[in-house]
Fold this sequence. Notes:
Layout: H1 19-46, E1 68-70, E2 76-78, H2 82-103, E3 112-116, E4 121-123, H3 125-136, E5 141-145, H4 147-157, H5 162-165, H6 170-185, E6 187-190, E7 194-196, H7 201-209, E8 214-218, H8 221-226, E9 238-245, H9 250-263, H10 266-274, H11 276-279, H12 282-298, E10 310-313, H13 315-318, H14 328-331, E11 333-335, E12 345-347, H15 355-367, E13 381-383, H16 394-398, E14 401-403, H17 404-407, E15 412-413
GO cellular component, one term: membrane
Organism: Vitrella brassicaformis (strain CCMP3155)
GO molecular function: mannosyltransferase activity
Amino acid sequence: MGSPKPKMGVKSPLSLPPVPSRFWLGCVITSAISVILFALFHSSAGSAPPAHLVQPEAASPESSTAAVFVGAGGVSVSWRAERLTRREEVIASRTTACGSARRREEPVFPRIIHQTWKERELPTMFKGWMQSCHDHNPTMEHYVYTHASLQALLDEHFPGFSAVWDELRGITLADVGRLLVLWIYGGIYQDMDYECLRPYEGLLQEAEAQGKDFIVGEEHLLHVFLLEHVDDEARPFVSNAWIAATPRHPLIGEFLNQTVQTLGNATTNGDCQGDPIGCTGPQKLTALIHKALDMEDESQPCERPPLGSVMVTDFDVVYGEYAASNNQLAHYCKRDPASFKAVLPTPRNPFATEWWAWQGCALLALAEDDSQIYVASQSVAVHHWMCSWCGSSPRLRRSNSFDVRRDAPWVVLK
């Protein structure tokens, strides 16, 4: 018997539409393919930076720790700031030439982790991150300071600054507080939303072997390019969320002196409260880091530079994660065409002539799908960017709290 015939009005799985329908169906498919090919061609042609912005193309790295990343349109992004790369050989030769004279004055970082918070009750999410730092650095001391204990330190060591301190609020107070504890004790300051991934000892020993007495990390390059609009020639741009220093470090002293002068003036104090990033935060620290590097370049071999000898780590050492919740980052980039997720973002039209926008958007392409894509084998800690001092994090507002004295016995509450 033959195969049963389909019922009227019901198509067999293999039945074909009438000829006229097939004709129009073919037209639709052909048109769709043409649109897709045109879009892909357009995105490929439109995703390249203008000719005057294109830099020499470099080989694609095997991992985020490689020297150069190549993104959209062949845009190259250097992991290490060009300025730091240029001076590495010079500084290395100086260190070798100093020999025993340098070794007699090797800096030593106190093995202390410092953190500050408003009070002894902390959001519960911090506890696991604090535990990670104890687990990876079990022999290091760990201090936590409240506003009250910072006030006591200030009254003891900088009594003339008390009137200015009383006017500080929020992040400005936190910025000055970290400088106080580093000036007095030395060691490592880190924000509360830091998680340790590996021991700090290797990084500290590497800096000490090179004669460095101050360590700071370049901020995540997505922030450097898309939030600070910094091009390669102006790098490194550093953050103050993680700093290591020897006690009484001259750069910390300079920072404190400038801060006291700024905040002691009523006009500049008001401006500072409105722009803490530029006044007491990363922009101010970056300016001092460049000043310190200039002074070190101009100093005589084997003598201590006026603002110390600074190590600036690649961004993925302590800033491998970026602030994915910051909506400003995506403001500068677009996916072209938007319907194709795989197409790399490129700068929106107003920013298409800016090299920082091309570099930032190339990095954003991968980070949008994985906020920790740049956390690498050399990362010792990661900053989770909870905006812990600005009070705008929904996760912090919803978090329960724990008593650091009672529930974190390895911590010394100052």
